[in-house]
Write a structure and sequence with these properties.
303 residues; mainly alpha; single chain; 2 strands
Length: 303
């Protein structure tokens, strides 16, 4: 089990395996999508959200006393939105916020890497980690709307040609970036190999999810698997900087146990609240996730 202690394997190999697994199963056996989705939600997504609150840095920078107020405020906002506008608005909010969060996480991990390689310039990569996911998202706009777990995500109306145009821009970005970096002598393959592998994995994953998969929901599953595993590894590393001997699976077990307890209670109370037309599990998930997004925004700015 020695490889489990090596964050390189966890940050690079496991997310790639997750992408391959999700992509292959979803395309070859679409009936297994729900099973994969349930595994992702309960064993990765929920622990991912809860893991933020196990990071001491987050609470040092955003005081613990603010946590309760943030949770209550968000719960009230999402409850009112669901009562006034219905579930569909909540799914639209969740869709765009999650896209932004994934983009910022990729940026944040790049920042963390740059701090360890202060003699290198990563300005172009930082720009691409924002603009490429934006190209990917806007490429969906020519569809007008998108079915997302039975709910419609509404997009601004754009010409039908926008999708293929942005796809070509996206494909061109990688060789252009490589050309500029080589001209500026800003590439060190040996020293920065792991980072380039990470950057390439993001590039390929967004391309597959937004431009290749016939159903976006399959690409989304690959994207969320990658993001959840990546974040759990990141929080493990950040939480154990002074005690790196802690094995990942022990940390993961603790986080997962906490998330099963929290979200298990929410699911048990769902029946009571549904009578009042309040989707408790969705409201609670959004509340925890958005609180996690707020804390993350502090982490990424100062990590």
């Amino acid at each position: 089990m020695g490889f489990v202690k090596n964050p390189i394997y966890l940050k690079i190999i496991i997310p790639w395996l997750a992408i391959i697994l999700a992509a292959q199963i979803s395309m070859i056996k679409p009936e297994y999508f729900i099973t994969l989705f349930i595994i992702d939600v309960w064993l990765l997504s929920h622990p991912h959200a809860v893991s933020t609150f196990f990071m001491k840095d987050a609470f040092d920078r955003l005081k613990k006393k603010h946590l309760f107020g943030i949770l209550i405020s968000l719960a009230i906002i999402f409850t009112l939105v669901s009562l006034k506008y219905g579930y569909n608005k909540l799914f639209n909010i969740y869709f765009f916020a999650q896209w932004f969060h994934y983009m910022r996480q990729n940026y944040g991990i790049t920042i963390s890497y740059c701090q360890r390689r202060s003699n290198r310039s990563f300005k172009l990569q930082k720009f691409l980690l924002h603009i490429l996911p934006t190209f990917a998202l806007v490429s969906l706009f020519d569809k007008g709307s998108l079915s997302f777990f039975g709910h419609f995500i509404y997009f601004p109306s754009l010409p039908n040609q926008i999708g293929p145009f942005l796809k070509n821009l996206y494909l061109a970005a990688l060789p252009i970036w490589l050309f500029i970096e080589i001209i500026n002598k800003n590439i060190n393959w040996r020293a920065d190999f792991n980072y380039y592998l990470y950057f390439l994995s993001n590039y390929i994953l967004y391309y597959l999810a937004y431009f290749i998969f016939t159903k976006f929901i399959y690409g989304w599953l690959s994207l969320t698997l990658y993001h959840n595993i990546q974040y759990l590894v990141f929080t493990w590393i950040k939480s154990n900087q002074k005690s790196a001997e802690q094995v990942f699976y022990k940390y993961y077990f603790l986080i997962t146990l906490a998330s099963l307890f929290i979200y298990g209670i929410i699911e048990l109370k769902e029946v009571t609240f549904i009578a009042y037309a309040i989707p408790l599990s969705l409201v609670a998930t959004l509340t925890f996730n958005f609180t996690h997004y707020i804390y993350d925004s502090v982490i990424w700015r100062k990590s």
